[in-house]
Amino acid sequence: MIFNLSVGQLLVGALAWIGTVGAVTIPSCQTVAPPEKNLTSVRTAEITVPAPPFGVVYAQQNDIAFVTLNTSLGVLNTSAFTPSLIHEIPLPASYVSVSGGTGSALTHNGLYVLVTASSTALIVVDAAKAATGSPEAIVGVLNGTAAAGDSAIEVTISGHDKYAFVSQEYGSPQTSGRGTIEVFKLQRPATNGTISGTYVGYLVLGDAVVGTALSPDGRILYATSELASSNTTQGTLSIIDVEKLKTDPSKALISNVAAGCGPVRVLVSRDNQVVWVTARESNALLAFDASKLVSDQNAALLASVQVGTSPVGLIFAGVNESRILTANSNRFASLDPSLYGNATTGLSVIEVDAAIRGEQANLGQIPTGLFPREFAISPNGKTILVTDYGSSMIQAVDVSTLP
Ligand SMILES: *[C@@H]1O[C@H](CO)[C@@H](O)[C@H](O)[C@H]1NC(C)=O
Ligand SMILES: *[C@@H]1O[C@H](CO)[C@@H](O)[C@H](O)[C@H]1NC(C)=O
Ligand SMILES: *[C@@H]1O[C@H](CO)[C@@H](O)[C@H](O)[C@H]1NC(C)=O
Ligand SMILES: *[C@@H]1O[C@H](CO)[C@@H](O)[C@H](O)[C@H]1NC(C)=O
Ligand SMILES: *[C@@H]1O[C@H](CO)[C@@H](O)[C@H](O)[C@H]1NC(C)=O
Ligand SMILES: *[C@@H]1O[C@H](CO)[C@@H](O)[C@H](O)[C@H]1NC(C)=O
Ligand SMILES: *[C@@H]1O[C@H](CO)[C@@H](O)[C@H](O)[C@H]1NC(C)=O
Ligand SMILES: *[C@@H]1O[C@H](CO)[C@@H](O)[C@H](O)[C@H]1NC(C)=O
């Protein structure tokens, strides 16, 4: 593979702090990724939606999915391979900032979709009512505090649906602009079906806190900060004790580990052993040994895989999580065409075992619309949806046709 680095890239690389841990090196910053093989034989289909789609999540059945569409929650009929938008449930305007709807997550019991909208609040949607298009699908709003932040991005739900952890990307003046994880305790539904909650508190992390993921045993919450502090180009992966987060959030941090330039999303393997992170400004997918993140951080980095330009979302695909797809957003192209204009968007397909062995693992890139951002996979594992935020499209990927 030819790495055609520009002077700018070399400068950024040289200025970045380059750490070495174990046998694998934490990647420095990189503007444009080298070209990838074009995977045109993967079956995809796309639809246009009325607003930039951000978070997407399937219901417990395969034929319904939900997507945040700025001021509404879109309901997709996914019974056919090509999805169709069948309803839009307006989100409560006073809890949606101008940046609009962001993350979404389904409770483990399948009853509710929790939605964030770049504000202080967590919006609770009844999944079954939403599937019918009922405006009464909004069954609760849990409003946080200004101190934790008003730029909520992702939500992760604890194992028994009792707590919700919300990333507040930019925190507040009280946190000196450092992002936080805000904690809500969810109450049982009232007899009229509404959901309320108790605000527990928040944990301050680094700058621009976005991605969160729970370990499958429910004990650890992982969160990314794009920058460890405003004086570095390196971001962090934070390892957080969930039991403490539920009761005393400000004391829940176990440790932080360097996670490349601009880490933005995190994913944990079903066997609880490997934590995967997209380092957006390194154009890399990183793999960490989950147990060493707690016991031996300097040896925790297992792999660093070159992917496409500015990866954001990531998801497992295939039997036994044999593949990972990254959403190569090229999101800075519109901000600086002179640097990013030649980069492409797409989904890199990564062979998980090869990545862990340190071998060539990038199988190529599936073309997408602009700024592919987040993923969802159907419960039967057959279809992956990706939100193309920059071209207001939702794209379906047929998992059986992946290399
Ligand atoms: C990749 O495939 C897409 C779809 O066929 C095509 O539009 C694009 O030009 C191809 N890119 C490269 C680099 O070959
Ligand atoms: C979301 O909708 C609001 C209100 O219509 C609008 O001002 C804003 O520009 C929209 N945001 C995006 C990202 O489309
Ligand atoms: C989804 O579309 C299929 C095929 O058109 C239809 O049979 C089914 O009733 C639709 N489901 C919902 C929930 O609208
Ligand atoms: C939600 O909480 C924030 C922070 O306390 C407050 O500024 C805002 O007015 C509240 N929103 C509503 C609709 O009550
Ligand atoms: C539903 O019940 C809750 C708890 O009793 C109450 O606070 C709320 O106002 C009720 N909402 C409606 C729409 O009746
Ligand atoms: C960051 O740099 C500024 C200016 O050099 C300095 O004042 C500040 O203390 C630094 N902050 C940290 C956290 O190192
Ligand atoms: C998936 O993992 C299970 C359990 O380890 C194993 O029995 C099975 O053979 C694996 N399937 C494939 C296709 O690798
Ligand atoms: C983009 O491609 C054009 C044409 O090949 C080339 O002249 C230009 O230098 C490239 N820009 C960057 C930033 O690589």
UniProtKB/TrEMBL annotation:
Keywords: Signal
Signal peptide as annotated in the record: 1-23
Manganese in keyword set: no
Species name: Cladonia borealis
Highest taxon, organism lineage: Eukaryota
Transmembrane intervals: none
InterPro entries: Host-pathogen_enzymatic-act, WD40/YVTN_repeat-like_dom_sf
Protein name as annotated: Uncharacterized protein
